[in-house]
Design a protein that fits this description.
Blueprint: H1 2-26, H2 40-63, H3 68-94, E1 99-100, H4 102-114, H5 120-132, H6 148-152, H7 171-174, H8 177-184, H9 186-205, H10 208-231, H11 252-257, H12 264-269, H13 285-295, E2 299-300, H14 307-327, H15 333-369, H16 375-418
Antiparallel strand pairs: 1-2
Helix pairs in contact: 2-10, 3-4, 3-5, 3-10, 4-9, 9-10, 14-15, 14-16, 15-16
Length: 420
């Protein structure tokens, strides 16, 4: 009887624990840690300003109307703010994709302050942490793993641990006098750019209130959410042709909205390239602006990832997808063997490319050491460099052909899956 009583007692306790588990699953907030405190000023900017724009801008438009000049200036301000963020805050200061003249850096610092997205130091520090710990919910400030709302703007509304200021990853920016000047005077600068300039423009156009509402408020809200799309939608919507190791996507429509930043999958694997859209037809006004600045002497040392590395990333991803697809089909073994042979050729091409790059570097070192040598030596080095470039082009072409063969191989998979 005692044993039976003990068994009954154990069963009763198990039922209680099971019931407690069900209750906790239905009411998770009872066990959840309290949410971090709301940041009032950010709530006003990122929640209050959009609500005010939704009410006041249509009201003024219907009751008084906006002129063509006001609309034109709103678009001009929108692009000046947007390009200062993408070309300055992002590609120049966060990723060092090129070098800029002090006049261009000052221009970016002013119009970047006008975008009201914090100082260069704070923005770049957060962004470098994002790239270093992408999709890590504990360390990425705006990790896509925490949801679309969080990565879009939720991360800025509360005092999350991942938002703590830490400038240890931007010692190079702390040595830039324009960056530190903007950081010290950020409140004054952003007030002048977001209120002072629209007021002055409104006085000039003869409609202060309408200009402040359209060029000031509506433009600011639009600029915020266009930028935030890069952190949110560009990690959820689109394709991943270059890498599947993170959530970043390429999306041509988002690129159109974000001044070229929508080619985000490329950017996350080749973050130091001054381009995001690498094809001539891909919409990337930030890339075109940087290239134009380089032509007139305002930018230099533009970083371009070699075409071979880009094609290598494409093929790496395609090989991985092909393996997954073929492994699901029993009849895919012959194709899988072909795939492995192609991958062996691919690996050999990559190793040859690395060897050629190492040889190229050695020749460059010797060229510097022998800079005062004879003219004959210089001619010989020029010939050897030309030969190296020819071999590199041959390797790039071989990868291009291999990519076509891989495409033909994978085209047989649908036919194979429908075969009886």
């Amino acid at each position: 009887m005692a044993d039976k009583a003990k068994r009954t007692d154990r069963q009763s306790r198990r039922k209680q624990l099971s019931l407690a588990g069900h209750v906790s699953s239905w009411y998770p907030m009872s066990q959840a840690a309290p949410r971090p405190a709301l940041i009032p000023i950010n709530a006003v900017i990122f929640l209050g300003f959009p609500l005010a724009a939704l009410v006041l801008v249509p009201w003024w438009g219907f009751s008084h109307g906006f002129t063509a000049a006001q609309w034109a200036w709103a678009v001009v301000f929108l692009y000046l703010n947007g390009l200062a963020i993408t070309g300055g805050y992002h590609r120049l200061w966060s990723h060092k994709a090129y070098r800029a003249h002090w006049a261009l850096r000052l221009w970016f610092a002013l119009w970047g302050a006008g975008a009201l997205q914090n100082s260069i130091m704070v923005w770049a520090s957060d962004h470098r942490r994002h790239h270093r710990h992408v999709d890590d919910n504990a360390r990425d400030p705006y990790s896509a793993g925490r949801g679309l709302w969080f990565s879009h703007m939720g991360w800025m509304l509360r005092e999350y641990a991942t938002n703590a200021e830490d400038f240890s990853n931007i010692p190079d920016l702390e040595r830039d006098p324009i960056v530190t000047w903007q950081h010290r005077h950020y409140v004054a600068l952003t007030t002048a750019m977001n209120l002072g300039l629209p007021l002055l423009l409104g006085w000039f156009l003869g409609d202060i209130i309408g200009t402040v509402l359209l060029v000031g408020l509506a433009r600011l809200v639009a600029n915020h959410h266009v930028t935030f799309f890069i952190n949110s939608l560009a990690h959820f919507w689109g394709t991943r042709p270059y890498t599947e190791s993170n959530s970043a996507r390429d999306n041509g429509f988002l690129a159109f909205l974000t001044y070229g930043e929508g080619y985000h999958n490329f950017h996350h694997i080749f973050q130091n390239d001054y381009r995001n859209g690498i094809r001539w037809y891909q919409w990337d006004p930030t890339k075109w602006m940087i290239a134009l600045c380089a032509r007139v002497g305002l930018a230099s040392d533009l970083t371009r990832v070699p075409a071979f590395r880009i094609r290598r990333a494409l093929l790496d991803t395609q090989f991985e997808r092909a393996r997954r697809s073929l492994s699901r089909h029993r009849a895919g073994e012959p194709l899988l063997e072909k795939l492995e042979r192609e991958y062996q050729l691919f690996t050999e091409a990559v190793n040859q490319w690395k060897a050629l790059q190492a040889e190229r570097y050695e020749r460059r070192v010797h060229a510097i050491e022998d800079a005062i040598g004879e003219h004959r030596v210089a001619l010989q080095q020029k010939w050897e460099q030309a030969a190296l470039r020819t071999r590199l082009r041959e390797l790039e072409f071989s990868l291009k052909m291999q990519q076509k063969r891989l495409g033909l191989l994978m085209a047989q998979v649908p036919a194979m899956s429908t075969a009886p």
